[in-house]
Amino acid sequence: MKLYCLSGHPTLPCNVLKFKSTTIMLDCGLDTTAVLHFLPLPLVHSPRLSKLPGWVSKDGTISLEKELKECAGRVFVDSLPEFCPPERELVDLSTIDVILISNYHCMMALPYITEHTGFTGTVYATEPTLQIGRLLMEELVAFMERVPKAQSATCWKNKEIQRLLPGPLKEAVEVWTWRRCYSMQEVNSALSKVQLVGYSQKVELFGAVQVTPLSSGYALGSSNWIIQSHYEKVSYVSGSSLLTTHPQPMDQSSLKNSDVLILTGLTQIPTANPDGMLGEFCSNLAMTIRAGGNVLVPCYSSGVIYDLLECLYQFIDSANLASTPLYFISPVANSSLEFSQIFAEWLCQNKQSKVYLPEPPFPHAELIQTNKLKHYPGIYGDFSNEFRQPCVVFTGHPSLRFGDVVHFMELWGKSSLNTVIFTEPDFSYLDALAPYQPLAMKCVYCPIDTRLNFHQVAKLLKEVQPLHVVCPEQYTQPPPTQSHRSDLMLELQPPPMPYRRCSVLGLPFRRRYERIQLLPELAKSLVPAEIKPGISVATVSAVLQTKDNKHVLQPPPKPAPAPPSKKRKRVIEEPPELMSPKPLLSGALPLEPFLSLLHKHGIMEVKVEDTPDGHILHLQAEDTLIQLEEDSTHIVCDNNEALRATLRDLVLRFLQKL
Amino acid sequence: MCGTPGTQPVVGGKDRTILNDRSVSWDQVTANRHFNKLSLYMVRMDPDCAELLPQVCEVLADPNQAVPDDTCLEKLLDWFTVLTGQVPAQSLLELNPCLISFISSVCRSKSAESSILAFALKLAGLLASSEVAFQLLKERSVVENAFEYRGWIESSHWEDATVRSGWVQGLQNMLKHWPAMQFMLESGLLKAVLHLQSDQSLFVASATNQLLARILTFPTAPEGDLSMEDACMVDEKKEHKISRDHDEWTQGTGEILKLVEESLASNIPFRVHQSLKLIGLSLTHCQPHVREVLWQKTVEAKEVLLRNGHSSLTQPFLEVLRAAVRTFSCTRENSSIVTLIEDMLCSLSPTLAIPFATGIIRLDNCPQVLKDRAAAIILQPLDHITALVGSQQKCSGTLPNSDCEHSVWEEQLSQKSSCISLLCLSLTSTSELLGLEPLRQNICVQSVILSVTTLLKICDGGPIFTSSTSHVSKAFRKLIGCSRVQKCVLDTLAALSHFPGSDVYAEDILSVLLLVLQNPDTDQNVFKKTLQTTLGWLSSCSQSPFMSLFLNKDLFPGMKKRLCDVRWEVRDSSLEFLTHLMLQFQGNPSFCKALSSSGICGFLMALLIDPESYVRASAVYTLGQMVCITCPEKGPTSPLGVQDEIFVRFTDILAQDTEGFARRAVIKVFCSWVRSPPLQPLEKMEKHLSTVLQHGSHDLDWEVKVHTLELAQIVIDQLLESSGHSSCPYNAVPSARNTGADLAESLRKLHRLTIFHTLFSGLFDCDRPVAQQACRILLHLKQVIADNIDDVDKTVLFDLQECKWGEDVLKKHSVATDTRVCVDIVELLQSLDLEGRQQVLDKSSDHLENSPRSLMQDILAAAHTAEENIADCY
User: Fold this and answer.
1) What are the angstrom distances between the C-alpha of A640 and each of A618, A650, B550, B761?
2) Which of A336, A620, B128, B373 is positioned for an S-S bond with A605, CB 3.0–4.6 A?
3) With 70 as the cut, is the pLDDT of residue B770 above it?
4) B564 to chain A: which residues are within 8 Å by CB?
């Protein structure tokens, strides 16, 4: 059993598990942090960005003025942003049988895996994962395609040139693997390979293994996966939460008794408690609005935004901010808000019960009804007519490199009354803000990450007791910025097996058993004999048939009755004669009774010698040796077949025959 | 404000001097009068009670009557205790012969209930506590009857712990004089008492220990607490005489000491425990030779205790040690005590050692060396933290090293649960230590501050720069977010802010406190405490240029965010903090400047409509205080430019807010404004005042009404003061303005402000505190008018038409109303029986229910009811 690690990002994993005869890809997260090296894509022409100076090396020998621009002391690539997809060289992607998706954030690299790679397998995901994943992909494609940029910067990727660039571009790794965003056609093609599954539904893969999604409590339709054969169990835990938010609670008990537990997707901000951050979000928002400023919340169009809106639903009235408009701007804003309301069976109990009242499970429906929340596909059209300040705007992309958020950063960045509140933990907010410097607006970092923290995961692992844990190497040491926090790492016995991008791990357990079926007619023919109280054994003669990873014992074919033929049979054509099997012996040979039996049969002179494994009986008169060992008995007597047979019979008297 | 209106005569400075000169004789006269009055009262109890007492005694003595519950008997006994303090017991007995017959019959009765028996025994002891009454009871054989042990031991009642407890307590009540002691010793009761010390009932055993302690300390034990020196002097002189005069007592104490010795050596934990308790109770007040013996036994017992490791005995043993330190140090430096205590401090487990050490530092007469050692023990956990962060600082005057087993402390600190409790104990005791003058001089404040701030940073999840990988440093990781430790740390930090010269650390400490305030995960109670501590440290550095920077850059922006917090507790604490901050620094120009430019005012206004009523109330207080802050740039007449808006908003709250807290706050703020007008004189506030008074007096909340009356009183005081008729007898009289015309004008003004409406509607309010307050103010007004009746023209007419109470009251008090609806205020005040009304109001509504008469009636009624119930059964 081997694990191939194609992504180094702990919360956007992509691993391949080879188990029995199957090749299973676990998630295919897309690391989008590479976009932070690129200049933002403004929706409307930005004089500021267009006037940025090009980069020339200090000695003037290298000039990449068209590809690289300088802004506030940092260098950015002026090109369509690129992403770092999972590693493609480690495993032949065409050999992958299935892809298991755990949540919609962890499927964004799917088109890079399934398209143009020879992939012929199936993708398994829950319905909300598929639908919301589709929305996120559509949004990403829309963000890219509506600001086309012909230029593609590649010169800077030259190793010799990159070495001379200033940081952090200089430190960027695997730049040659970076890819442009996929197209809508590729998205559709990739998603057409998805087969929907429900929680606890058992899916057989080629008869070899069974995979089952379990609720992970993190997002709508998010799952952990159990991959098991009859005698082995691997759990894949990715993006799970024990907090009471909108999704169904996490199913922990099914993870018990795993041989290996692959642990990914823990919180990215282990020091920030989501409740505290939600409080900070609200108080900063209220503070800004009361001072007459606007609030910009760069966010994904699904996920935490539902919780933020629910929190604001309660807060705005109590903070007397009910008259402040909330705007949600995204090409998929409407679909996202509506989808969230229709996946009732995937929601927590509290929200599920609302459906029977009937009420919409999320209160943002009421915010929309009362005109407190308005959603638009973009800043053009209706939005520009109805836009009123001060207001709160939720829009993407959280990297601040593309999407409508770029426009608001340019619009509001100059006033210190406004605030940008970062709630998504995927990007460093300082890096995200770098191309907007100098910036007058206030910046607040309230990352809300509901995924498991180290304290929770320690409790979970204590509960489910896996034999071995495999995790990204980042979890085996404290975060680099807080090296003193030894509590922010996994401390387990035995220690977890760490992996990094391009690691290949041999998982530390050997398969020892395989299940084989007996056909009824074969079973009928068996004659068990009790060798110990409660233990019966029988000998089986059968033919083993293996098909689709299933093994069946069938009765041996009977010899065909000899056809009435006068023709002299040819020896060669005769079917092999079925010999009745020799009886199997069991039991131990007791020394004293055996000696007395020999005595009775006239063998008087027996010298007994103890050996480490048993005894050697020397029949001196007969010049014969009997070696008695735990699992064998040898009679050594030269040229006296009669004596040997007698001795053999005497030995057999003490043993049971099957 | 001075005095209570109406209770003090209005006297000028001169008269007051005369009064002071004669104060001694006045006191004497008053005391004599009081004594005569008491003695008149003391001759016999309240006639109603005296009448009921025989019936009650009869009911209680009758075994066929229902027994009242224990509470009734306890209350009855309490009443007798008070009574015996006021009335000589013999006169009680003579005037109420039923008492003797009750005690005699109950103690003879074989069928009395155990609770009644216990009551009778305690009562007998109480009555026999005076020597004369004891003789009287002895003559009537009541004492023998009640306490004679042989009779009891043969009775089945003795099986009941209630009876045994009553017997012991009765004896203890009685043992106030030598004849009682003699009786007890001669009758051989001591043997029984010694036996009861290890009674299976803890109540009996504990009461017996008290009784034994009383016997041991008998000749010297003062009624009140003598000072140690007095007690010791008395000891030396009396000892010889007493042992000569009272052989029986000397023998008795010998028997007790023998019992103590046997018990301590018995190795039976309960017996050892009891004897240690007895030593602890008696050591301070007993005779020197007894004390020597007790101490010797204790020292011997220590070996046994430590050898056997009875942890349950440690606490009483430590009590004895504390008593020993209190006792012996006044006579000489007893080195064995010091050594023993030092040993104990080191050998005890840390969680016991710190409370013991805290007890030692509190002692007045304790040797300094011991106190220093105790202080070192208290600071031990903090020293570990200092060592952890690798501080090389050596402070001058540091306490001696505690010389204790470090491994034990480290082990306790390396486990999460014990680490937290140990740190909390240490921090709490350190706070106390910092308040003790001679001790704190030896403390290295720098080191304490370093460890305490480190601890606060650890709790806040901050980095600690340590190379140590010990278990202790790992255990400290578990302290992140531990609010229990945080609260203790903050208390200690608050105590440190009062430390002389601590202001040099203010900048560092405030920056750490700011981290806690900024942490969104800080618990709301910790947040509140942090604000309180911050206030203390800001006060310590109010003159520092750092403060202004801290306020502008860190504190006020942080406060604005907290005023918008999701948790109402945080909003509320922030408002309270701002109010206190303004009170503290309202005269500090840099503070006022920082506040006015912070933009906080707008946030406070928004909180006036907060959904939580506590927050609204706090916002009212804060804004009320903010109005008093003058902005140096905008001039004194325009405090932040929102004063008028605030007035309007406040009156709106009073009229519309659904919760009482905010409305009470508004009235209180108006009180404070009128009491010390912030920026506008009273005249300018008149318009708002009459509205406030009208709303306040018609409020449904009685507290709002009481505060409205307080507001009315303040206005009255100010107006009378300005017209020279102050309610405060100590006010200097401005002679030039002391005219009747001014008084009349003041009355007219009060009328305009609707103050009379407020007062009269308060007077007839159904809530007693409201009516009481209104009555007091009206009585005072009446007095002022009566004193100046010739100067007051009757031009202030009060319209009775709108008053529901008007007609009834006027008829009742026969004011000639005829067809008039307007009555002159002077006439109205004179015709109302305000004095009578005050008497009625001064009695609490349950004054009848709480009287002894009512208690006895209850007992009788219960008995009758029980009789009826029995009849019903047939």
Assistant:
1) 15, 15, 110, 135
2) A620
3) yes
4) 282-287, 290, 319
Q: How far apart are CA A204 and CA A195, in angstroms?
A: 13
- Convert B300-352 into a string of H (helix), E (strand) and C (coil): HHHHHHHHHCCHHHHHHHHHHHHHHHHHHCCCCCCHHHHHHHHHHHHHCCHHH
Residue A250 per-residue DSSP state: P
Helix (H) or strand (E) holding B499: none
Question: Band of the pLDDT at B243, cuts 50, 70, 90?
Answer: low
* Of B561, B610, B611, Cβ closest to residue A287: B561
Which of B561, B606, B612 has the CB atom closest to A283's CB atom?
B561
CA gap B776, A26 in Å, rounded: 83
Q: A119 CA to chain B: closest CA distance, Å? A: 47
DSSP characters over B596-633 = HTTTHHHHHHHGGG-SSHHHHHHHHHHHHHHTTPPPTT
What pLDDT, on the 0 to 100 scale, is given for residue B487? 95
Q: What is the pLDDT of residues A28-43, one digit of tens each?
A: 999 999 999 999 999 8
Regions of chain A short of the pLDDT cut 70: 562-581
Instruction: Using CA coordinates, name the residue in chain A closest to B477.
Output: A487
* Cα distance between residue B800 and residue B506, in whole Å: 63
In b/e form, how buried is each residue of A291-300, taking b as 16+ CB within 10 angstroms? bebbbbbbbb
Q: What is the pLDDT of residues B390-436, one digit of tens each?
A: 654 545 444 556 566 677 788 888 887 788 999 999 999 999 888 88
Percent of chain B residues past pLDDT 70, beyond the cut: 77
| Residue B430, amino acid | T
Asked whether the predicted pLDDT for residue B43 surpasses 60, the reply is: no
pLDDT, mean of residues B427-451: 85
Q: Is B484 exposed, middle or buried (CB count within 10 Å of its CB: 0-12, 13-18, 19+)? A: middle
**pTM beyond 0.80, yes or no:** no
How far is it, in rounded angstroms, from Cα B40 to Cα B49? 16
Residue B597 contacts A, CB cutoff 8 Å: no
Q: What is the pLDDT of residues A58-78, one digit of tens each?
A: 777 777 888 899 998 899 999
pLDDT at B734: 44
Residue for token digits 């999701």? B566
Q: What is the rounded CA–CA span in Å between residue A362 and residue A309?
A: 9
Under 8 Å CB pairs connecting chains A and B tally to: 63
Contact call for A482 and B463, based on CB within 8 A: yes
Residues of B in contact with A319 (CB under 8 A): 564, 606
Query: Of the candidates A271, A282, A486, which has its C-beta nearest B477's C-beta?
Result: A486
Residues 521-540 of chain B whose Cβ lies under 8 A from any Cβ of chain A: 521
| For residue B6, pLDDT beyond 50 | no
Q: What is the pLDDT of residues A325-381, one digit of tens each?
A: 999 999 999 999 999 998 888 999 889 888 888 889 999 999 999 999 999 999 988
A406: tokens are 């770029």
Query: Residue B392: what are its φ and ψ, rounded to 5°?
Result: -100, 10
For the record, the structure tokens of B510 come out as 């405030």
Residue ranges per structural domain of chain B: 1-36, 44-184+844-874
Residue with tokens 């055993």, as numbered in its chain: B205
What residues of chain A have any CB closer than 8 angstroms to a CB in chain B?
271-273, 275-280, 282-287, 290-291, 315, 317-320, 446, 482, 484-487
Distance CA B722, CA B725 (A): 7
Q: Which residue of B has its CA nearest to A288?
A: B561
Tokens of A354: 């609302």
The string of DSSP codes covering B858-870 is HHHHHHHHHHHHH
**B640 band by pLDDT with thresholds 50, 70 and 90:** very low
* B560 lies within 8 A of chain A by CB: yes
The total of other beta-carbon atoms located within 10 Å of residue A236's CB is 30
